[in-house]
C-alpha cells in the first residue's frame, strides 16, 4: 500500500468518523444492542446457574457470557461493514465513489477499518458491563481471545462482502439480508452448545464454517485452560477461504454494477 492509497482509505474512514462525531444517537445505537445482550444473557445465565447449584455459577455464567460476547464480535463486524456500505447508498454517494480514484480493494479496506472502529465502540461497554455486573472478564480466557476475535471478525467481514455483493446485484430488495444472513448461521455456529449436539447430518455444514471451530475452542479454553490449536487453525483457514471467495464475488459484482451503471441509481 502506497501513500496515495493510504490517503484514499483514510478519506473514506474519516467521512464516516465525521458522521458519528456529530451524531450521538448513532454512537448510542452502536452500544445499545451489545449492552442489552449482556443484560439478558447475564441474568439468564445466573438464573440457570442458581437452578443448577452454587458450583455451576462460574461455569454457567462464563460459558454463556463468553459465547454471547464472541458472537457479538461476529455480528458487529458484519453489520459495521455492511451498514457503512449501505450508508454510501442511502446518501447517494456510491456513484461519486465509483468515479473517484478509490479502487475496489481500497473501498473494502476502508470499510474494514470502519467496521473495526464501530465494533470497538460497541463491544467495550458490553465487556465492561459483564465484568462489573457478573464478574466475568473475557480476557480470563488468556491471550488466545485475541485470536478468537480475529477469526470471528474475518468471518463477519466475509459475510458482509457477500451481502454487499447481493445488494450490488439485486439493489434495494436485498438490503434486508444485511440484518438476517448472519443470524441464519447461528444454528451452525454452536455458540451456546457443542458441535456434537447437532444432528450428524448437520455437523459437516457446521464444520465448514469457522464459527463452530472458534466456539469449540472457546469452550475448551474455559473448561481445561488449554488452547485448541486444531480448531484455531481450522477457523483461520476457513475464514481465509470464505474471505477470499466473498472478496472475489464482491469485486465481480462491483465491476458488473459499474458497467451496467447501477452504481448511480442503486437504492432508488
Shape: globular
The largest sheet, given as strand count, sense and whether it forms a barrel, is: none
Beta-strand share of residues: under 5%
**What number is the mean pLDDT?**
84
- Assign a percent range to the helix content: over 70%
Kindly state the number of beta strands: 0
Radius of gyration, taken over Cα atoms and rounded to an integer in Å: 20 Å
Helix and strand string, N-terminal first?
A: HHHHHHHHHHH
Low-confidence stretches: none
Number of helices: 11
Q: How many domain modules?
A: 1
What is the SS-derived class? mainly alpha
Please render the helix and strand layout as text.
Blueprint: H1 3-21, H2 24-52, H3 57-90, H4 94-98, H5 104-134, H6 144-170, H7 177-184, H8 186-189, H9 203-207, H10 210-224, H11 229-260
Helix pairs in contact: 1-5, 2-3, 2-5, 3-5, 3-6, 3-7, 3-10, 6-7, 6-10, 6-11, 10-11
